[in-house]
């Protein structure tokens, strides 16, 4: 009896794992299949490095599918947001893990978790009414800019970064701080020379996951970035790949090159994420033996 | 007998619950003193009072005095107190660096950056714990890659790098195998020539093998203390005899 139930349980788990794996495979196959027709119209080089995006030949008489600016905007916004978020997030994590008492921690964590629960459209709305207005007053045309969306994105990444980083730091503090202070060494010296270095490996993994989130974030970024096909500059408008797809997919004629090109852009986003993940993992293994 | 550490009327309570109740005793210089007693009797708390680590624990109340070489320890700066009374914990806790960096960590913090002198500190302290010959070619290897017994000896060597007077050990062998325990015990017998050693242990046989003096604690109270031989062979108190006889523990 025990044997039969074990077998059933094992098969069930296998099926469930298979479903997850199959879903991922089918999504990728589907995107690749839909993306391929694009390259009958444009070469891969022109698609990746072209700067002109004219998906319809109405009026102009010619079409062009270059997503270089969108790629750069996606990378620019994500990395800028990551840096802002990391500086603030690491500081907050250090406070929560190494300074705050467990009572204060217990009070702060629910608030941070709450930040993670706010829908991105609400973030975008706040970005429009607060950040964009601020940038207008500061003299930026229309207020929508790359910096605004990076700041907004940074705030969205914070709860995740803080809860994950402070957990790692707390674990390592509990492990090593006692050994440090028992040698008569100052708490902050131990934190900066042992606890932080010991946590780098996990922090890099956290960064990988956060960058994935940042590059895929659509709504909030779309609402404040200005959505113009321009090479990203700090205070200029631009448009990310995710925003491009969200904005144009609804109006693209099914089966047209425009339609396929949007899928191809999505594929590029996936590949970019994949490359960044591998890159950071390589750095992690090289830096920390 | 001259004592390195002395405690007078030490009382510790966590959140109003008394863990150590009015204990007074002394720890003789360059001898090994074992603190024994059933689990949860306050042994580790007592040990934490001896180097001021107890202050790091929130919601704790400490009464009474600790004397280091006859002078009140809480008048010393806390880092000086901890430098003079080193501690080795139950689970080996080397820093996630190389052995060399582990052993030069504290000396560097105290301002020693002379390469030759740091090399000497590493060599001497590893020799002290009988590890130098064993791992002399692997000083650059991460300390986490060594066996549990070796890690614990690295931790003992690390505690010695700040030249303490007293070495506290909190059940240093409970996570180790029999062979490693034998090596650590040998190390402690050797260290006794230069350091005052206080060891908390669950292992009565180990206490018997190592100690010069024994302090028996139960429910936070000091039940009996005295010369190890005398306590193990003919304890005065009924409770001590029961504990040593393995009736509870």
Task: List the defining traits of the structure above.
heterodimer; A: 289 residues; mainly alpha; MetI-like fold; 11 helices; globular; B: 249 residues; alpha/beta; Rossmann fold; 6-stranded mixed β-sheet; 4-stranded antiparallel β-sheet; 10 helices; 10 strands
Describe this protein's structure.
The complex is a heterodimer of chains A (about 290) and B (about 250). Helices cover about 75% and strands about 0% of the residues of chain A. Chain A has about 290 residues and is mainly alpha-helical. Chain A has one domain (about 65-285): MetI-like (MetI-like fold). Chain A has a two-stranded antiparallel ribbon. In chain A, helix 10 (about 240-250) runs antiparallel to helix 11. Chain B is of the alpha/beta class. Chain B has a single domain (about 5-245), classed as Rossmann fold (3-Layer(aba) Sandwich), CATH 3.40.50. Chain B is built from ten helices and ten strands. In chain B, strand 1 (about 5-15) and strand 2 form a beta hairpin. Chain B is globular and about 55 Å long. The mean pLDDT of chain B is about 90. The interface of A and B includes residues 101, 102, 183 and 193 of A.
